Amino acid sequence: MSSSALTMSYLHVPRKTPFTSNTIGQQLYHIAETYSEKEMYVFYGDNERIIFQQMKDSSQRFAASLLSRGMKKGDRIALWGFNHSEWLTAFYACTQLGILVVPLRSELPLHTVSFIFKELKCKVILLTRSPANLVERIFTLMPELHDNDDRRTDQQFSRLFPDLKFIIYGDGLSFEHVQNRSIYKLDTFLELADKSDIDKVTAACMSIDMDDPALTYFTSGSTGSPKAVVLSHHALLNNTATSGAYRAGMEGFQDNWDSVRFGITMTFSSSGSFIGTFLPLVRGCTSVILYPDFTVEAMAKALQDERVTEGAFCINHMAQLINIPDFNMYDFSNLRIVNSTGSVIPRKLRQRVEQIAKRNGTYGMTETLEVMLSHPLDPQDAKNEDCVYPVGGTEVKIVNDEGRVVPVNAQGELLVRSYSLLLYYLGEPEKTREFKDDNGWAHTGDVAVMDHRGFVKICGRIKDLITKNAVNLAPLELERILNQHQSIEDTMVVGVPGDIAGEEVCACIRLRNETTLTTEEVIEFCKGKVFTLLVPKYIVFVNEFPATEIGKFSRQKMSIRAMEMLGLKQETKE
Question: What is the tens place of the pLDDT at every residue in 100-130?
Fold first, then answer.
């Protein structure tokens, strides 16, 4: 905490521990020597346990096979599917070669997937062992794969995606009717490399720089178009170490990392999973992967069976856990810290969570990673509601519309400057400059207030994104789809309070004259055209949209009106 009372809304928190200069691959080599036989990852749903040395060896062999097929530094590989060991094997392999990893959510609309494959010039696609419909979706994107002519060259592999060289698929998927030499089952692919290729991997890994790009996550801006956020090895590793150290400062944790078992319920394709993904890499602890095939019963059983001590959970998963039938039948006594991610946790849910574990709230974005936490060592009165405190090595300021720092307790836009910021938006230099200015400040687009101690309270979003299940959703994307319907004159999509946590999507629709449309028909029209979470839960039909005094349509007023029509109430905070 700041040693003296602040008068202006600016704070720099010094970092107490030095940064590492290792890359992710180099760190894996180092940590595998120290914790060779210890469990690194437990894939609970797959009944699979991966020790540190095994992850190093399997990822090296995967990297060697990539080299044997001509992959090199700067190339891009898409990882599509659920959380399985092959996802992490491929990821660690790519970090050793300087190949940029592009994680994709399995349920993304095909037009978005096609856009990503084409615009990012992905040369390889890895399909994890589930979900099974990935094969069907690949065939929909590339029907020419049904052509069994084995004489086709790499250049003819896909007409729509000319940069694509080959596809790798995990166990459980089937391309049994396809005889194409550029489609590999994972086991077969791993046999392509020889000893000389593995030696080349080690040399390549040592040549990668800490500031090289490692991973890109996708986020949606207010326009709804996907933006590829490129993050460096340095940002990912050091932000994980910092965030983990702050949480471990809680009573009973200190530096005893050998006993930490970290649970994750988020997908690897979500930036919210990065702490649980990389914590074993920087601290030598074990992560327990509770996804795919998530059910609250499986989550509760895994927390109990694997003696999970800390977890990063989506708020909806946390709410389901607290409300699980026969709650008292499970043993959660090992669980010490619960990390809520993605959005503000409602007060009632927060109170119930804190009955079983200390709660650690976080603030961050895909572009910044975790830059503020609810500080575990502060007095109780500092942990009220949604106050967060910057992590070491981070600067935070609140500015007015002119970009000047405001006094404490005054609202303004939150700006952040940190080692963990994105390198750039891939292929979008203008958007990069718009987000990160010439002085290195990230413009978060959030309204916030800083108090005299340096604690920050997030008040809301400048832009009108809807936060559902810890995912930011762009209303404009759904509006564009709905406005294609022949019976719809215009649409305004807003967020309304959810039943359990976060927000729900509500589509407010003006129909064309002399037309009718049912709620069920609207929802059915949306399915398959937009991201699953963006399919609206609520539909309201209106004659007009409310406007501001200067004539602009107001989403805020429309949201309030929709809540009144639906009989929903916004939870009040104490």
Answer: 999 998 888 898 899 999 999 999 999 999 9
- Residue in 64, 117, 120, 133 with CA at minimum distance from that of residue 92: 64
Taken in order 147, 150, 156, 161, the sign of the CA dihedral is positive
- CA distances to 208, 343, 374 from 63, in Å: 14, 36, 39
Which pTM value belongs to this model? 0.82
| DSSP symbol at 287 | E
Measured from the Cβ of residue 3, the count of other Cβ atoms closer than 10 Å reads 4
The rounded distance, in Å, linking the Cα atoms of 164 and 141 is 12
Q: How far is CA 445 from the centre of its chain?
A: 18
Give the integer Cα–Cα distance in Å for 286 and 37: 12
Spatial separation of the C-alpha atoms in residues 396 and 453, rounded to whole Å: 13
Task: Give the residue from 386, 103, 60 showing the smallest Cα distance to 229.
Answer: 103
Q: What domains appear along the chain, each with residue ranges and CATH number?
A: 10-19+217-461 (3.40.50.12780), 51-209 (3.40.50.980), 466-566 (3.30.300.30)
- The pLDDT confidence band at residue 464, using thresholds 50, 70 and 90, is confident
Identity of the amino acid at 99: I
- Under 8 Å between Cβ of 425 and 434: no
Does residue 435 come out as left (phi exceeding 0), alpha (psi in the -120 to 50 range) or beta?
alpha
Is pLDDT at 428 greater than 60 in this prediction?
yes
CB 358 within 8 A of CB 336: yes
Mean pLDDT score across all residues of the chain = 87
Tell me, what's the pLDDT at 341?
A: 63
pLDDT at residue 422 above 50? yes
Q: How many CA atoms lie within 13 A of 113 on its CB side?
A: 25
